[in-house]
Structure formats: structure tokens, C-alpha cells
Amino acid sequence: MLRSFGVQLVRVMILAVCGMLAMIQVNVKTLAAPAIRNDYKSFLKSAETLYTAVNNGDFAQVLTIMKVIEQRLIHLSLKDVVSAEGIEALAANVAGLKKATIAVKQDPLQWQMGAAKLRLAADALANPDQPLWFQYQSVLKEDISTLKGTLVAYASGQQVPKAALTASKQLQQHYQLIRTAALLKLAPELIERSDSVFRYMNTLMQAQSPKYELVQNMMEPLQDAITALFPEDGKATATTIVGATSVPLGWMITLGVFIIAVLSWASWKRYQSEH
Predict the structure, then answer these.
(1) How far is CA 228 from CA 29, 109, 137, 189, 224, in A?
(2) Where along the chain do its domains lie?
(3) From CA 108, how far away is CA 110, in angstroms rounded?
(4) Where is mean pLDDT largest: 97-106, 210-219, 245-254?
(5) Other C-beta atoms within 10 Å of 242: how many?
(6) Burial of 169 (0-12, 13-18, 19+ CB in 10 A)
(7) 158: pLDDT confidence band, cut at 50, 70 and 90?
(8) Which positions ≥6 away from 59 have C-beta within 8 Å?
(9) Which residues are within 8 A (CB) of 75 and not within 5 positions of it... i.e. 6 or more apart?
(10) What is the DSSP string of 42-80?
(11) What's the distance, Cα to Cα, between the start and end of the chain in Å?
(12) Residues 6+ apart with CB under 8 A from 148
């Protein structure tokens, strides 16, 4: 009987220790969460500094802050990014900016676009509940409305109006601004769908004389693809990691020891009652 009691006591203690370790693991992850958020905030601050430097034409500051951004990206935790495509897009964004800064012929527009894309992407990591790129929902809707207006008088056999080409280019530029930020938080299938619709739009717009039906029919899938990128009410959160409540590590160890003691005492009382 003593052997049976010993086995039961060991089992109880193992279960208690496992529970304590699980609680400690949750707490360690929780303690790490603020550090990760601080890294995101620092990365965002650097991206904002770069954006300002680019728009001010401060080339020396751009070179300096790009080195900081690259190092922060290397050490940045990307566990909140929902896909490998998102990580790849963020890295490509930084690599593209780095390449632009060392190019023999500088392209101010490429700088501005790259810096704006990185700023929105960094903000998506630092502020997952209400990222800045959500605000582009109304901008893209307006772009689509403008594009529709330029195609009202279009007829088959004609060239696409210049106003329509300009409107489609503006729509695509605005989409490219948010693409990396969206890819950090959304399923890559949604982004691929939008990419495909834009490729189809470009094919039609660049054709010599696209059919009227094709041009008009492209508007609905274009609008649907853009709408799918944003929350229905414009306020809902994107993919968000919800952290557990932080509990002091020492308190959890004390609690674990207390649980072991209580369970051991209960087993001992049970053993006494049986004998």
C-alpha cells in the first residue's frame, strides 16, 4: 500500500509541476510581448524619420537612417506576421530602398514611394488594431470612382482615354503603397487576388483597342478585390495577437510549490483514511 501511495504522490507532483511549467511558459511569452512591441515602435520611429528625410531631400540623413533600419529589421521579431510572403515583402521593401540610395542616378519618386510603403508597413506592425493603411480604403474607392467616370464615354474600337490611363495609374500607385502593410496582416491569397486583377486591368488599358464589354466588366472584380482588403465597418482590427495577463514569475513559482504541497497533503489524508 505504501508503494501505491508513493506512485500516486509522484503522479500528483508530476502533474502539478507540469501545470506550473505551463503557467511559467505563458508568463515568459507575456513578458516578451512588451519587448516585441517596443521593437515595433522603434522600427516605426526609424521609418518615420526616413520618410521625413526623404521628403526633405536630406540625403545624408537618408543614408544614416537606412543603416539603422536595416539593423533593426535583422533583429526584429516577425512572429506576428501571418505569412512568409509578408516577411518577404517587408525585406524587399527595405532592400529596394537601400538599392535606391546607392544608385548612380537618384529617383526621387522611387524614394518617396519606398519610404511611404515602409512607413505604412512599420505602422501595421506597431499599431495592428488601427493601422494607417486602413485610411486608404476611402482613397482607393475614390480612385475607382474616378476611373469609372473616365470610361463612361469609351466605345469599342477606340483607344483608352488618357484620363483613364492616368486614373488607373493613380489607383495602382495607391494600392502599391499599402500592399506590404496589408500583406503583413492578411492572407496572401487576398493580395494575390488583387495583384491578378491589377495585372488584368493593365493588360486592358495598354491594349490598342480593347472591347467595351471587357473594359466595363473589369470594374466589378477590381472593386471587390479592393473591398476584401479592408474591414467591413472600416474600424475592425486586422489579424491581432492577444496577449495573456502578465503575472510575476516569482508568484507563479510560489503558487506551483503551494499546489504541490496541497495535493501531497490531500493524498496523504486519503492514504490515512484508507488505512
Answers:
(1) 32, 28, 10, 11, 6
(2) 1-127+246-275, 129-244
(3) 5
(4) 210-219
(5) 6
(6) middle
(7) confident
(8) 101, 106
(9) 39
(10) HHHHHHHHHHHHHHHT-HHHHHHHHHHHHHHHHT---TT
(11) 9
(12) 219
CA–CA separation, 44 and 126 (whole Å): 7
Give pLDDT tens digits for 179-222: 999 999 999 999 999 999 999 999 998 888 888 888 889 999 99
Q: Grid coordinates in use for 75? A: 533583429
Q: What are the distances in angstroms from CA 74 to CA 11, 96, 199, 265?
A: 45, 15, 32, 52
**Of 146, 140, 165, 184, residue with least CA distance to 44:** 184
Q: How far apart are CA 56 and CA 8, in angstroms?
A: 72
For the whole prediction, is pTM greater than 0.90?
no
Count other Cβ atoms within 10 Å, centred on residue 4.
10
Instruction: Name the residue type at position 111.
Output: W
Residue closest to 86 by CA, chosen among 151, 157, 182, 166:
182
Q: Where are the alpha helices (DSSP H) in the chain?
A: 2-56, 59-74, 84-102, 108-126, 136-150, 162-185, 188-206, 212-217, 219-227, 249-274
**Per-residue DSSP letter, 238:** -
Contact 249, 174 (CB under 8 A): no
**What 3-state DSSP class applies to 246?**
coil
